[in-house]
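Sample entry (370 residues):
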Amino acid sequence: MPLDVPNLDDRNYADLVEEALGMLSRYAPTWTNHNPTDPGITVVELLAYFTEMHLFRLNNVTRASKLQFLRLLEGPDEDVTKNAVQPSEEEVDTRIKLAVLKLRQRQRAVTCEDFEFLTREAAAASSESEAREIQSRCIARRALDLPDAGLREIDRPGHVSVVVVPAVELDPPSFDTLLQHIREYLEPKRLLATQLHVVKPCYLQLAVGAVVRQKAGVSFADLQDSVTQALEHYFSPYRGGGPEGNGWSLGRHVYLSEVQALLQQTVDVERVGTVQILGMSASDTPLDDDQTAVGVQLGMRSTLGVDSRLGAETVRDARRLIISGSGRLVGVALRPYEVVGIEKVVVREEPARWSESQNGGSVSGSQEVH
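Predicted structure, serialized as tokens:
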């Protein structure tokens, strides 16, 4: 809704003189002669006259002043005073309004908020409709296009990385085209000497294990398919994934309680027991490698680094592990530029010995799904 133009010429000579005389008793109590014959009153009336005249001029900006103001807004290349046919008063007012609105647009990327806004703006203007809706996250002082996870965490002043996640999965050529389009859009808007990196998200690959009981009449094959599909769909960064269906957010942590609640709502699952993170890797290291094993809570009574994974080493980046006060794993922390990838699902079921599995006993039936 447009704002009404204020009337600046709303004071006349009589009002100004009356207000000034009313202030004399407060600021000059010894001044008692307020007749027009007093020299001081003459000065007050003179000042009121000039004030009224300036207010009138202020409220009536000349056309020449508007043209000069428009020239300052649009720059010398758009100088309308050079044209043979001068624009009308209405045209000048319209161009001034458009120029002021244009000043409100983000034309430079300075803060992380600027980079994220302009990234979404660039994607919205993409030629491919599937790439117009994205998640974006700006990470300052990082070069996230480096292949090694350790190098990505090194503080690099002057570097800015923009992570892009489309709403739908794109094939590699289309994704590369989108990143190139965003890079070309941001490049002229960055600050001088800023090194820009427009990258795909990094994946934290997880191996998830769960002890579940299937509903009556459901085969184990159908059970493991349901569990795998539920986990892959829920942790997907694309549209439909995540707790709100907008895709798993960049940097959102993974909590075992969420996984357990998800599996409990799965169609073929009657009851959920233990849920575990069996392994994780932020690089191309296979999850079967002991170095990627999470040495916590593979049984209901296991403790941190003692009797889990048959004595395997605890994951090297222990800062990722979210541990409760009792030493139990409750979740895995993601970095702001990471999303979740489900690399492997291990489903175990033991209907006949359910109570034993709940108490940390051995489980005989298990299958792995890659």
